[in-house]
Hints:
By secondary structure, the chain is mainly β. It folds into 2 domains: 16-94; 100-169, no CATH class. It is built from 2 helices and 13 strands, in the order βββββββαββββββα. The strands form 4 sheets. A 4-stranded mixed beta sheet has the order 1-7-6-5. A 3-stranded antiparallel beta sheet has the order 2-3-4. The longest helix has 14 residues, at 81-94. 15% of the residues are buried.
Amino acid sequence: xxxxxxxxxxxxxxxxxxxxxxxxxxxxxxxxxxxxxxxxxxxxxxxxxxxxxxxxxxxxxxxxxxxxxxxxxxxxxxxxxxxxxxxxxxxxxxxxxxxxxxxxxxxxxxxxxxxxxxxxxxxxxxxxxxxxxxxxxxxxxxxxxxxxxxxxxxxxxxxxxxxxxxxxxxxx
Length: 172
């Protein structure tokens, strides 16, 4: 419950479709996100993308601690810079899916095997337990899950270098 709400048995949270200029989203020193809409402050909110991989800038929702939708943005394009930057920061805190840019080497072509990779977050290794841990979302988009539960994204398979594609083809 927010700090300014009063509890009444008949009051229920309602979905509010907002003018993008109306809400205020901010974080405090402890990293807790707050949303102010229509003179109400909601604490411990989080932002969630409706389609995080295929349409990351389309459909963003702000949810309460209980998972109730407090507001919805059809698109992040065209939002005022203040709310767009706050939404981006809130989303980054929730989402962690490094993008694989290049496969440097694999320890073998039989699973389990180690992959040495370059990602958007730097160089790392992952342990692939089986081919079933590589999921194809469409022709060029893959999600690779390692043995520790970390998911890596390959956004555009055809744009990767030849060696990376050749190594990946052995597992697909």
